[in-house]
Write a structure and sequence with these properties.
Distance between the termini of chain A: 31 Å
Shape of chain A: globular
CATH topology of the domain at 92-279 in chain B: MetI-like fold
Helix content of chain A: 25-40%
Order of helices and strands of chain B: HHHHHHHHHHHHHH
CATH architecture of the largest domain in chain A: 3-Layer(aba) Sandwich
Largest interface: A-B, 29 and 20 residues
CATH superfamily of the largest domain in chain A: P-loop containing nucleotide triphosphate hydrolases
Largest sheet of chain A: 8 strands, mixed
Radius of gyration of chain B: 24 Å
Strand content of chain A: 15-25%
Number of helices of chain B: 14
Shape of chain B: globular
Oligomer: heterodimer
CATH class of the largest domain in chain A: Alpha Beta
InterPro entries (chain A): AAA+_ATPase, ABC_Ni/Peptide_Import, ABC_transporter-like_ATP-bd, ABC_transporter-like_CS, Oligopep_ABC_C, P-loop_NTPase
Membrane topology (chain A): Peripheral membrane protein
Helix content of chain B: over 70%
Main location (chain A): membrane
Number of helices of chain A: 14
CATH class of the domain at 92-279 in chain B: Mainly Alpha
Keywords (chain A): ATP-binding, Cell membrane, Membrane, Nucleotide-binding, Transport
Number of strands of chain B: 0
Domain ABC transporter (chain A): 8-260
Chain lengths: 341, 334
């Protein structure tokens, strides 16, 4: 994995929202890489900044009030965070595509499936003939496992089930062979059986086309099933980064541990399911100390006064916790910038 | 679908019947007597009685009403008490004048209103949004007769750009074919007259368009604001679509239904003949036709004229309901 080419590099990304109270960073100096052909998960509770991270990559942060205020987003070495809207339009749908949480509302109800897929093709392939476009649309619909592809082109979204619509969304996202697919909670709104089918489809397509997938989710089941590496985000920061095996076997950050503990386990009959006490702090509300300290059972005085850095345990495992430092985690490279901030 | 249209048209019958009955009674409750008005102040009691007898005004009201209904069911709107002309032929030039003006005004209102609403929603809280919405607020609250007078004062009297009133140049009259003067002048190849007709339409058209423009702009804005936040708009942007097309293709079509509803209602109101505007601009429309008939106590013209206006109003609403299905395939009537 490490030897593979980096397709997307996020360096020190900070995305802020401006309000009457001033600047609030929803994504706070986030670093991660996405390699060619891998499936990387970003996990966290609602409001931890995972969706804003993905919208920042797409250049779709609602502006105003949102804005990328620091850092770089390198797509194959080019910093797309500095791109103009016109340049970004060429990237969206073509190099980076995105599917969303709500298949029921993500397709335009007043246009046919054919019209919406053709649009995605034509935006980036203006010279294609009608026939070419149609053939490509049918090919994509078949590829995502939809029967009656030809007829579907003339149907409207309301005639399709949620699972079928998500398949259409995936077909539409992949129609221009993007290098990166951002899937923002693609299965949250679906039935469990359909969830499994959609995840399987994403895995298959990832395998087939070598498209890198950034899977945004709060569901550790999804992570275990589909991803190779995981980034855990909390209150706008990356708190842990590891391979899937390491995350489940040897989670280092207390927040990650809490998340894993709060997944129901069929093997044990428990009185009640574990949940992490408290709520995610409002962005910008924790000024000093570890952002998780208020909810952490291991918190010490140091956690309340000092900002932990992202300590490296091995080349593939990092954690933002003083406990890791005590275990011998080191700070190197760009991560040390965070502490000095 | 045809079934549905048939059903809706059948439903119109009781509506129009009820309407005709109420109008019939109300106009007879107005003090005054058509025979007296026709014959003048100095007419003798005998001649008035004779004319009343001739016009059938002596019959009990229910006999008069059923005579009227009998005529309606055979497509006869009756004769004017004053001119003795059949109303169905007399009314058309007035109706055509009103339709021409209303369509002209609505075209202005739709183009300006819809675009102002879209741009306001697209650039919410920008200076354009603020200015447009303040103008729209002034627009809905503007007394139209006053606006009409100001228009005439500025553009006719002071600047002398446009005629003050009427539909045509009286020294260069138009020979009517359809009574839609824009169409008639084109059929006859009289482009000079076509220009004159347009000039006559501008001032009353703008005055009449003011309120609909403002209402359409406000409705479009609020409808667009809701749609612009929807997921499929984000999807369209994520595909790399240009913002212009995202707004005008994806968002607008979804925002259109409430806008279409107000367009339908406003068109219906304008086609009813805006009496004030038609009076100020001496526009020979249906509003003035009925208004003058009231002065003459011309019962038959009043009741039939109002019936025609009501019929147009409900038909426009039916057309709007049918247009919904064209925009949104999820809407189905059965």
């Amino acid at each position: 994995m490490v030897n593979q080419k980096k397709i997307l590099e996020i360096n020190e990304l900070e995305t802020s929202f401006f309000s009457d109270d001033g600047k609030i960073a929803a994504v706070d100096h986030v670093n991660f890489d996405l390699h060619e052909g891998e499936i990387l998960a970003i996990v966290g509770e609602s409001g931890c900044g995972k969706s804003v991270t993905s919208l920042s990559i797409m250049g779709l942060v609602p502006s105003p009030p949102g804005k990328i205020t620091n850092g770089e987003i390198l797509l194959q070495g080019k910093d797309i965070s500095k791109f103009s809207e016109k340049e970004m339009r060429k990237i969206r749908g073509n190099d980076i595509a995105m599917i969303f949480q709500e298949p029921m509302t993500s397709l335009n109800p007043l246009f046919t499936i054919g019209n919406q897929i053709s649009e995605a093709i034509l935006i980036h392939n203006k010279s294609w003939s009608k026939k070419q476009v149609r053939e490509r649309a049918v090919e994509m619909l078949r590829l995502v496992g939809l029967p009656r592809a030809e007829e579907l082109l003339n149907e409207y979204p309301h005639q399709l089930s949620g699972g079928m619509r998500q398949r259409v969304m995936i077909a539409m996202a992949l129609v221009c062979n993007p290098k990166v697919l951002i899937a923002d909670e693609p299965t949250t709104a679906l039935d469990v059986t359909i969830q499994a089918q959609i995840l399987k489809l994403i895995r298959e397509l990832n395998d087939k086309f070598n498209t890198a997938v950034l899977m945004i989710t709060h569901d550790l089941g999804v992570v275990a099933e589909t991803c190779q590496r995981v980034i855990v985000m909390y209150a706008g920061q990356v708190v842990e980064e590891a391979t899937v095996q390491e995350i489940f076997k040897n989670p280092k950050h207390p927040y990650t541990k809490g998340l894993i503990q709060s997944v129901p386990d069929m093997r044990y009959k428990k009185e009640s399911l574990y949940s992490i006490p408290g709520n995610v702090p409002k962005p910008g509300s924790v000024k000093v100390g570890c952002r998780f300290a208020q909810r952490c059972e291991f918190a010490t005085d140091r956690c309340l006064t000092e900002n932990p850095a992202l300590y490296e345990l091995s080349s593939s495992h990092k954690s933002r916790c003083f406990l890791v430092e005590e275990e011998g985690g080191s700070v190197n490279g760009k991560e040390s910038l965070v502490e000095s901030k | 679908m045809l079934n549905y249209i048939g059903k809706r048209v059948l439903q119109l019958i009781p509506v129009l019947l009820g309407m005709s009955f109420i109008v019939f009674l109300i106009i007879r409750a107005i003090p005054g007597n058509p025979a007296q008005v026709i014959l003048g102040q100095k007419a003798t009691q005998e001649s008035i009685a004779a004319l009343e007898e001739k016009l059938g005004l002596n019959n009990p009201w229910y006999v008069q009403y059923f005579d009227y209904l009998k005529g309606l069911f055979t497509g006869d709107l009756g004769e004017s008490l004053r001119t003795s002309q059949p109303i169905s032929s007399e009314i058309w030039p007035y109706l055509a004048a009103t339709i021409e003006l209303a369509v002209f005004a609505m075209i202005i209102a739709i183009i300006v209103g819809v675009n102002a609403g879209i741009i306001s929603a697209w650039f919410q809280n920008s200076w354009f949004d603020y200015v447009a919405m303040v103008i729209a607020l002034i627009g809905v609250s503007m007394p139209i007769f006053w606006l009409g007078l100001i228009e005439q004062w500025v553009f006719s009297l002071n600047l002398d750009w446009l005629p003050t009133s009427g539909r045509e140049d009286v020294r260069n009259p138009i020979s009517p074919i359809t009574n839609f003067y824009l169409i008639d002048t084109l059929i006859q190849g009289r482009f000079d007259q076509f220009g004159i007709v347009i000039k006559h339409l501008i001032l009353p058209g703008v005055a009449l368009a003011t309120i609909p423009t403002a209402i359409i702009a406000r409705m479009t804005r609020s409808s667009m604001l809701e749609v612009m936040r929807s997921d499929y708009v984000r999807t369209a942007r994520a595909k790399g679509q240009k913002m212009f097309l995202v707004v005008y293709k994806h968002a607008l079509k979804n925002a259109l239904i409430p806008v279409l509803t107000v367009i339908g209602l406003q068109t219906g109101l304008l086609l009813g003949g805006a009496i004030l505007t038609e009076t100020i601009f001496s526009w020979p429309g249906i509003g003035r036709y009925i208004y003058e008939a009231i002065g003459y106590r011309d019962y038959t013209v009043i009741q039939s004229g109002i019936l025609v206006v009501a019929f147009i109003f409900v038909m426009i609403n039916l057309i709007v309901d049918l247009l919904y299905t064209v925009i949104d395939k999820r809407i189905k009537y059965s």
